[in-house]
Amino acid sequence: MQSSNNTSPSITRADTVFTNLRQRIVEGDILTGSKLSEPELAKYYEISRSTLRDALSRLEGCGLLERKANIGYRVVTLSTEQLLEIFRVRESLEGMACRLAAQNMTSSEIEDLRRLLEVHNQNESLQQGQAYIQKEGDLDFHFRIVMGSGNKLLIRLLCEELYYLVRMYRYQFGMASPRAKRAFTEHHHIIQAIEDQDGELAEILMRRHISASRKNVENRMNTL
Q1: What is the sign of the dihedral through the CA atoms of 184, 215, 171 and 82?
Q2: I need a labelling partner for 21 at 20 to 30 A (CA). Which of 11, 32, 116, 200 fits?
């Protein structure tokens, strides 16, 4: 049946496969370092090789896959060093996004952000101070802040190229964190700075927030 939004069936199918593969890679269903078999995946998803390659190319663009000559696609292998590099980049870019969000987010968007934290606070793991688990996309505080910046380049860099790679690291290294409740409180302070349209403070608070998370990861890695 022809799609009602005039999107071709092959592109629609590629989108679906891309999303499904991305979730499987991020959550560890497809292990890091695994070589992907294009014939097997094409058969599994019942799609053409060209449609599959479209999805795989997009996953490569997200940093989740790497392609090597005569080998094909492989899920990236994670390292502590790469994770810390990403945190340093995020500290700078998300700080900038937070400053812009203080200038650009509407009252209704800020209120929606507060409601999101109310939903987060209902999570049992957070209430017990064990972990601060956020679902992806609009259910993620950091994702919402970057989108609220209104800066297309920042959105592409943080919400497309780095976002799912960061989530994959979180799944691999575990979601538990002694910072859970403190991180939640820091989110509230960031929202207040945004609501006050204090871009300078919002940026400082976001940078400190991500820096603290990076240091927490470093400490955890040193004890493994």
Answers
A1: positive
A2: 116
Place of tokens 């999107």: 7
- The token pair at 130 is 């064990």
User: Rounded to an integer, what distance in angstroms lies between the CA atom of residue 3 and that of residue 13?
Assistant: 11
Write down the CATH number for the domain with range 80-222: 1.20.120.530
Q: Which H helix or E strand runs over 160?
A: none
**What CATH class does 9-75 carry?**
mainly alpha
Domain boundaries, the chain: 9-75, 80-222
Query: What are 218's two structure tokens?
Result: 């470093």
Can you tell me the distance from the alpha carbon of 74 to that of 67, in angstroms, rounded to the nearest whole number?
Answer: 6
Interval 50-74: pLDDT, tens = 999 999 999 998 889 999 888 899 9
* DSSP structure string for 97-142: HHHHHHHH--HHHHHHHHHHHHHHHT-HHHHTTSB----SGGGSHH
Q: In this structure, what token pair is assigned to residue 204?
A: 């400082």
pLDDT tens per residue, range 112-167: 999 999 999 888 888 887 777 788 888 899 999 999 999 999 999 999 888 888 88
